[in-house]
Design goal:
This protein has 5 helices and no strands. About 45% of the residues lie in helices and about 0% in strands. The chain has one domain. The longest helix has 29 residues. The chain has about 130 residues and is mainly alpha-helical.
């Protein structure tokens, strides 16, 4: 990638994050990171979790902000629940093999000897 094109892409990405969420808002969901942090992924799996609002199925929501907040929290909970469950099971039974974990909870895959490599598609050289 040409250096000027790389700088243009970097400016676009930086502008996106700089302008992503208004800093003067009371809507906490707008300020949450796009990728859940460790604290969020380790929170307990309980049916009466205060972070997840109750769905209002009868009548209107008090405001559009309450509605948007609730919908965002529902989607975030749904998208993280399976991974949070797998993390909880691994922490509860750290010495079980993948096959043993499948007896407890089908769908958990355990990868060993994995190296994490950083990747940024904006800056990868395509030759």
């Amino acid at each position: 990638m040409h250096p000027q094109e790389r700088l243009r892409h970097e400016a676009i990405v930086n502008d996106y994050y700089r302008n992503a969420a208004p800093r003067n808002t009371d809507d906490g969901w707008l300020l949450l990171p796009e990728v859940p942090d460790t604290q969020e992924m380790l929170r307990p799996l309980v049916s009466d979790d205060l972070r997840v609002p109750h769905n209002q199925i009868d009548g209107n929501w008090p405001s559009k902000y309450d509605h948007l907040t609730a919908q965002y929290e529902f989607l975030r909970e749904e998208s993280t629940f399976a991974l949070r469950r797998a993390i909880g099971l691994m922490r509860e039974h750290p010495h079980l093999s993948e096959l043993d974990h499948r007896d407890i909870s089908p769908g958990i895959g355990i990868y060993e000897k994995v190296a994490i490599e950083p990747f940024n598609h904006l800056y990868s050289d395509r030759s």
